[in-house]
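Suppose a classmate hands you a notebook page containing two proteins, each written out with its sequence and a corresponding row of structure tokens. How would you begin to make sense of it? This section walks through that situation. The first entry is reproduced here exactly as it would appear on such a page.
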Amino acid sequence: MKKTMNASVLGLPNRVFGGLLLAACLGGAMQAAWAEEPESKVTGNMSIASDYRFRGFTQTNYGPALQGGLDWEHRNGLYLGNWNSNVAQDLYNGATLEMDFYGGLKGEWHSLFGTTYDVGAIYYGYPKSGTNPPQNSLLLNNTAYNNTEVYLGLSNGPLSLKVNIATSDYFKMASSLSAPLSTKGTTYVDLGYTQQFVGLVFGAHVGVLGLKNYKQTQFVQASELGTQPLTPMVNDYKLSIGKDFGDNAVVTANYFSTSKRGYFQTDAYGLRSAGKSGLTLGFTKGF
């Protein structure tokens, strides 16, 4: 997740590093910055990672990713932001770039023992997705794989819980296969834990994707072409370690695993599972 003292490092869409992990590294700097800065501010971030994982599954065919974003945040908790990353063209039907736009409100529920909340919406956009599909693609139409979700997050101390709900066909899974029933309403539950120890920040994460209308005939036929049969749920797991080297520079290491490695593939052909267990390394610089 992504930046220094902005919405992305604090747990929004940077999907490589993990928001709470970086928030723990940079929390003190954020508080100091608010004490000195005006009511609103704009911050940015750039990062490089050995692999871009989204909910446990690679988005770059196990290759490196260059990522970055900008965030605007107000003292009252309102925020808006944008985050971007390269993605595998064969996975996103011709797109090579992901552009996320998000906004919401963060605050604290004092009556709930200092629990903080984060409510908002996010749009995942993939320019040229569907307009330049890979040759010999198994996709049945030129669908653009854009997606929208709303989310609610809660955190208290080292624990965090976040729920995302798709407000459109989930990454166009149904429409790309001409399935009659939308996957709108698909949920993703994210449970996280972070703890500082001897100058490092350790994290653990479990995610559960609940796919809506997964039993459709078109999904079964697609699985016969090489993908793993869809099930109502698939889990992903992550263990993280991070180190803040000062001047808004953070190095992280993440180990990913999934309950069904072949649930998604690295490309449109369904030839290689995207959920293999593995270690990723990353470096983020905030400005």
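The notebook's second entry, a different protein, reads as follows.
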Amino acid sequence: MMRAPDSVRSGAHHAIRFRVLAGREPGFTLLELVIVMFIMGLIMMIALPNVTIISSARIRSEARRLAGRATFLYEKAAAEKVVYRLIFHLDRDLNGYEVARLDPFDMEPKFTPASGPATQAVLMPPGVRIRDVTVEGVGTVERGVVATHFYPGGYVDATLVHITDTGGAVYTLFLNPLTGRVSIALGDVRDAARMQQ
């Protein structure tokens, strides 16, 4: 029996294989879909906790940053014998804080924007915002602008600040009026006495 040359056999094999594959409906098999869904589930299980950790780290970092700024302003007001104003902007499009300075010994005392790297305006990063600020004598403000003052005699307006993120985490900061100490607590604390314990 005579055999066909290899090139003919190879061509016939490809033609048969092409017809088999061409007859198959386009799409995925159930097994392929299950495998893809399983892999996506694994990726989500690994990635989701990391996203939460990053978000938690971001809000914690912003709380510490604000606490550091408040401590700095308390000390700077006493050292320079001036009044510093920490101005909170609580609107969605402008959520952050800035610093103004008033020298009571000027001919015409007025607040002007403070200059220097430690007093630059700060905008909250995406996903983190200042929810509300409670200042003694003013009350709780959730929208607009509110300010707390640092006085040359070593006094600051008693202030509670709540910072939140999109995940629902809340940090509470309390500025102690007599010591200037800033306390940070995880959670929505409404009572300044609880922060001082």
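A careful reader of the second entry would note: The chain has a mean pLDDT of 82.
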